[in-house]
Write a structure and sequence with these properties.
The chain has a two-stranded antiparallel sheet. By secondary structure, it is of the alpha+beta class. The chain contains two helices and four strands; from the N terminus they run E-E-H-H-E-E.
Length: 71
């Protein structure tokens, strides 16, 4: 065992409001394909989620958690 230890957890949801504040990275899948991945603030954007859901949405952040609002 090396000096570095990496612990990985996966949490799958269809509701971004369920993403708890301690989660730092996310991936967006569309029809089983990863279309965006990385830091949650860079991935969970108005542009990415509007494109995914095919409606105009806004993401608001509260206590390190995203909340989706349909415009």
């Amino acid at each position: 065992v090396g000096s570095e230890m990496c612990i990985r957890d996966s949490y799958v949801t269809h509701q971004i409001e369920e993403i708890i504040s301690s989660i730092s990275h996310v991936a967006i899948l569309d029809n089983g394909e990863i279309v965006a991945q990385g830091n949650k603030y860079e991935v969970l954007t108005d542009e990415n989620l509007s494109k995914l859901y095919e409606i105009d949405v806004k993401i608001e952040w509260s206590n390190n958690r995203p909340w989706l609002i349909v415009k």
